[in-house]
Amino acid sequence: MSRLIPFVFLLCFFTTSYSQSEIYELRVYELEFFKPAKVLHDYFQQALIPALNRQGVKPVGAFEELGEALPKKIYLLIPYASMQAYQEVADALENDKQFKLDAKPYAEAPQEEIPFNHIESSFIRSTSGFPNLVKPAENSTVFELRIYESHNEDALRRKVKMFNDSEFSIFEDVGLHTVFFGANISGSQMPCLTYLLAFKDMEEHKEAWSKFGPHPEWQRIIKLDEYANAMNDITRIFLKPLAYSQL
What we know:
It comes from Lutimonas vermicola. By secondary structure, the chain is an alpha+beta fold. The chain is about 35% helix and about 30% strand.
């Protein structure tokens, strides 16, 4: 009987914390060294993103990492109303004649012209505290992608609750502009949550985070036993939008 308790506990969590949630697909294309990526950029800009937009999937984000990190990577952020919507859009693209025509240069490119080694795809479900993607300000040039890992599902539940109950309001107070937030339902770093912040520049980023630690609400909640050991690792990636990004 005791083995049922964690399952029921997490079932209640998912039911209450994820009602009316969105689904985000985060794709990461790892590029080969010194290989031109034009065929891939053209595919995104001229075929995939317009086809997704025709299905009501918008805005679609397209980013690359700031700096000169190798291997280079391209990030696509694709929002869906639900997992069912994702399935319906995938089926629609299979039957979209315009998409197939626009994607032909990419689909028929010889193997040696395909610039990436592999694609990683994660699905992220938004939570009640931040249920919908928010398009950032037009002058946003720096994006910060954060992934918080937890040691088990209950620790993740507690970290998500910490955001839902308090951290989003702190973010708003200090100028940490959230684009999306959610708990991963697939991917390589689970159990984890993922979110994206947008800034005008690195100076705004630095100023906002400098206000976060001393914030009185943050100082209150980090002392609560409920949230102790809710997170054990952070991945932080700085991104910049590509010319055709809709975010």
